[in-house]
Amino acid sequence: MASSLPLWFPDHPPIYDIQKSYMDNAEEGPFFDGAYPERTLPPKEKWVDFLGHKIMSPLGVPAGPLLNSKYIALASKLGFDVLTYKTIRSAAHETHSVPNMIYIDVNGQLPRNESTLHQTNKQPHDMEHLAVTNSFGMGCYDPKYLLKDIAKAKASLIDGQVLNVSVVGTQRPGEDFIKDFVKTALLAKEAGADIITVNFSCPNVGKHTEGSIYMDPKTSGDIATRIVKTIGDVPLVVKLGYMEDRARLTDVLTSIARAGARGVCGINTIGRKVTNASGAPALGVGRETSGICGGPIRSYGLEFVKNARDIIVTEALGLTLLGVGGVVKPEHFDEYLSAGADIAMSATGMMWNPYLAMRWHEMHNVIIYD
Ligand SMILES: Cc1cc2nc3c(=O)[nH]c(=O)nc-3n(C[C@H](O)[C@H](O)[C@H](O)COP(=O)(O)O)c2cc1C
């Protein structure tokens, strides 16, 4: 069956304008002027269980591309069923300045050695080659705005979809870092999150430890324990970064499962040095390293998911597994599901092709177009 879904990439720009600031994108975006294809909803007996919620499909968007309720509403209409509200903090926080996202010159998968990567101004000729780096610093609005906007995001979903709210703790002088994680998770609960994902793995938060907690099984377990105790019946997912060391991954997964976390999500972006044509840091001094995302990290994400699934089964951890990293074409969702993910998600891919989920639904014959 030929697709009657309109083409998006490369004819249309991404739904997030990389020339504009994060705030401008939040206020003016999402930049979507396409049609809303009609989705034929699967019968309820085909819905899948996700942490106690029945959802229509195992497709989602992880923390990042859905900046606020307008973006959540768009992704919901375009067939994503696990919608993640971008990472929130306990207080308003500045985003890094523009540029926040640039194309990088990587052909194929990201090299395993830690060589420096280079910026390119050329848009890739196809989705497979969509290679980007991002650095936002997890900026966010104040709690008053968030309470209202997260509730609005939730109200935009339909039956068979869930709202996942991503949270992180902030290190502030004289304040208890772990308490701030708990406070932020409570804010997410109060705002109406169906599921909460705690981010232990952002590579763009510089010297702070916010981004590297996932490398430490004990701290990961301690923070997860405190959050689980406080949020009660709202399931907690822990977001991890790529981890090559299987023994360490086993320890982290065991530790968060013991803490009462119900799920694990990986991977986050992979931190690498990126320079421009003159050899200077492409995102500016102070941001020498940034997170690589899109096509080149798919093999890393798949490796993570295979290892995590194996460990979850072998150690009988009972964790639900959310896979992300490099899903830029609809068939990549299937690669993740086959590798052992319960849920497969796309961040960069869905920004450059918001019809990604609809194309998957079409491939799986659960959608009919006029
Ligand atoms: C624009 C953008 C912003 C992101 N912001 C966050 C964030 O706030 N919190 C988080 O846990 N991950 C964030 N991520 C990481 C994604 O959730 C995902 O783990 C990563 O991009 C790999 O997936 P991808 O290859 O599909 O982009 C962000 C990614 C992108 C592209």
Automatic annotation (TrEMBL):
The keyword Flavoprotein applies. The keyword GTP-binding does not apply. GO terms for cellular component: cytoplasm. Residues 132-353 form the Dihydroorotate dehydrogenase catalytic domain. InterPro entries: Aldolase_TIM, DHO_dehydrogenase, Dihydroorotate_DH_cat. Pathway: Pyrimidine metabolism; UMP biosynthesis via de novo pathway. One of its GO terms (biological process) is pyrimidine nucleotide biosynthetic process. One of its GO terms (molecular function) is dihydroorotate dehydrogenase activity. Signal peptide: none annotated. It holds the Pfam family DHO_dh. Keywords: Flavoprotein, FMN, Oxidoreductase, Pyrimidine biosynthesis. Its cofactor is FMN. This is Dihydroorotate dehydrogenase. It comes from Candidatus Magasanikbacteria bacterium CG_4_10_14_0_2_um_filter_41_31.
